[in-house]
Amino acid sequence: MEKDFLKKKEEAKKKSILVIEDEEMLAEMYKDKFEYEGFTVFSAYDGEEGLKMAFKKKPDIILLDVLLPKKEGVDVLKEIRESGKWGKELPVVMFSNLESSDYILEAISKYNPSYYFMKTNIELNEVVKKIKELISF
């Protein structure tokens, strides 16, 4: 049983996640949790930095806040999706404190995030579980 856990942790090291979140404390919480789970974690605290990092690091998945300074999450997702094959296929999980507004519903229909959740309505372990599902962990 312990060997299976260690094997899965080793496999996860091959997986990388980019967390784009402007609330530093929350970003660090995600970073710590995903590193504990064995992921390679990259962090960005605004949309411009996150977009640059996405294209440079080519993570396996992105956890993307909707409301960000410098460039909003929806615009980041739009540019990723329009960048070619990698961007179209990349799993992107969006999250926010916003209720399902017209803005979010439009973004979901246009740019097809892999999943959307409300920060206040989900536990950290559920986020990890969803990320693992999306990249066949």
Provide the descriptors you would attach to this structure in a database record.
7 helices, 18% strand, five-stranded parallel beta sheet, alpha/beta, globular, 5 strands, 137 residues, Rossmann fold
* Percentage of residues in DSSP E strands: 15-25%
Number of E-type strands: 5
Spatial ordering of strands, largest sheet: 2-1-3-4-5
Give the overall pLDDT as a whole number: 85
Structural category: alpha/beta
The total domain count is: 1
Shape: globular
Architecture (CATH level 2) name: 3-Layer(aba) Sandwich
Order of helices and strands: HEHEHEHHEHEH
CATH topology: Rossmann fold
Question: What is the straight-line distance between the termini?
Answer: 17 Å
Report the helical percentage. 40-55%
Low-pLDDT windows of residues: none
Give the helix tally: 7
Give Rg in angstroms. 14 Å
CATH class: Alpha Beta
The largest sheet is: 5 strands, parallel
Would you identify the CATH H-level superfamily? Response regulator
What would you note in describing this structure?
It is a single chain. The protein is α/β, with parallel strands linked by helices. The protein has one domain (16-127): 3-Layer(aba) Sandwich (Rossmann fold), CATH 3.40.50.2300. Helix content is 52%, strand content 18%. It is built from seven helices and five strands. It has helices at residues 2-13, 24-36, 47-57, 73-81, 85-89, 102-111, 124-134; strands at 16-20, 40-44, 61-65, 92-96, 115-118. It has a five-stranded parallel β-sheet with strand order 2-1-3-4-5, with helices on both faces. Strand 4, helix 6 and strand 5 form a beta-alpha-beta unit. Helix 3 (47-57) runs parallel beside helix 4. The protein is globular. The protein starts with a helix and ends with a helix. The mean pLDDT is 85.
